[in-house]
Amino acid sequence: MAPDPVAAETAAQGPTPRYFTWDEVAQRSGRGKEQWLVIDRKVYNVTKFTRRHPGGSRVISHYAGQDATDPFVAFHINQGLVRKYMSSLLIGELSPEQPSFEPTKNKELTDEFRELQATMERMGLMKPNHVFFLMHLLHILLLDVTAWLILWLFGTSFVPFVLCAVLLSTVQAQAGWLQHDLGHLSVFSTSTWNHLVHHFVIGHLKGAPASWWNHLHFQHHAKPNCFCKDPDINMHPFFFALGKILSVELGKQKKKYMPYNHQHKYFFLIGPPALLPAYFQWYIFYFVIKRKKWVDLAWMTSFYVRIFLTYVPLLGLKGSLGLLFLARFLESNWFVWVTQMNHIPMHIDHDRNVVWFSMQVRATCNVHKSAFNDWFSGHLNFQIEHHLFPRMPRHNYHKVAPLVQSLCAKHGIEYQSKPLLSAFADIVHSLKESGQLWLDAYLHQ
Q1: Cα(403)–Cα(76) distance, rounded to whole angstroms?
Q2: Rounded CA separation 47/34 (Å)
Q3: 392 secondary structure, DSSP code
Q4: Residue 235 per-residue DSSP state
Q5: Would the pLDDT of 23 be above 80?
């Protein structure tokens, strides 16, 4: 019998792909069921993969049932290699009549943002300046040595002790910005080198675990200011009522864990001064031990061994512990004001699955560029650009900012940039406003 030419051609082309609609994908959003997501029109079943995902199970689960193309591009430095590993998860693709992303999203804005990404790549803005990062590391090490020399040369009286603590807190803050760069894979061209040096900076220079930072921070970037998905706003509702929408919602539900109408006052007590010394300091050890992150624990231990070997001979054990606590206290105030000025005053809501560009811009704001602001905040005064392009080296944020502003203006999206002190004040103003909204809803709705 003569061979069937149609069957032969079909066999040569491989099996017929399975086609899906956006409605079918949206139904696989987790919550005890399957988890699917879409990248470049390809549909992946990540249900069993989430626990093995190098970036953590939660960050990939936050996009279950949704298009994940833009965060995939934003987070992965070697996308070709990652796609090879993902081939076993591929179950099909979107039907030809389906749009490339959810029909509810703005096609023009999404297309133009992706064109902006391509323009940015052509401009070379993803290429790091290694001299910049080397100088930043050297200035951290210089300040660290200077802090010890002050005590060694001038004794351990009150003034040298406080000056040493100030310098150590500066070291910790600046090392925090540098580990942030490394964690986002923006210092070296390969993931391996970024991860290796990240362990050194966050572990040996700061005494914190890289795995803990990755677990929390990538969720924040994936869904900033989205309740139950961004861990940075987990203080809602147990400590603070955040954002206009969530505060009114909390009031209507007659929930009151704290006197939220006074939260702009008690923020000064349980926010900036307490976050690092009272919470992070013990929680990071709980995290690494519970999850058996022994490599991280070894790096953290090296930090404390170094601190005590250098300062106990000068201050004794109690004095060294006091110095470390004071440095953490000062660092905590620095860290909280800088990290919260860009997000707490901005739009906070449940995940509405909007366009990546508009989600990131609405959840973030900038602080005006200056040499001091850039250094003081680790260039996180360009929070909008950082959230849109998290792998971009920070020294290039100001170069892409005009392009981002133009795209915002074209689509009527507010691009906020403000003075540093105004940004600090807006944290307090927004807490006062959301607390009052909660009270009004609690009493009258």
Answers
A1: 22
A2: 5
A3: S
A4: T
A5: yes
Asked whether the predicted pLDDT for residue 1 surpasses 50, the reply is no
What rounded mean pLDDT belongs to the chain?
Answer: 93
Asked if residue 400 lies in contact with residue 120, where contact means CB atoms within 8 angstroms, the answer is yes
SS3 148: helix
Q: Say how far apart CA 383 and CA 140 lie, in whole Å.
A: 22
The amino acid at residue 170 is: T
- pLDDT for the residue numbered 4: 47
pTM metric for this prediction: 0.92
Domain boundaries along the sequence of the chain: 14-95, 130-218+264-340
Distance CA(229)–CA(61), nearest Å, equals 9
282 by Cβ neighbours in 10 Å (0-12 / 13-18 / 19+) ranks as exposed
pLDDT of residue 6: 40
CATH 3.10.120.10, applies to 14-95? yes
Give the DSSP letter of residue 419: -
Is the pLDDT at 14 greater than 90, yes or no? Answer: no
CA nearest neighbour of 432 among 226, 254, 244: 244
What are 252-270's pLDDT values in tens digits?
A: 999 999 999 999 999 999 9
Kindly list the distances between the CA atom of residue 229 and the CA atoms of 66, 247, 427, in Å, as whole numbers in the listed order: 14, 17, 21
Packing angle, helices 420-444 and 294-340, rounded to 10:
90
Q: Is the dihedral of CA 185, 119, 223, 408 positive or negative?
A: positive
Report residue 343 as tokens: 């997000």
Q: DSSP string covering 275-321, please?
A: IIIIIIHHHHHHHHHHTT-HHHHHHHHHHHHHHHHHHHHHHHHHHHH
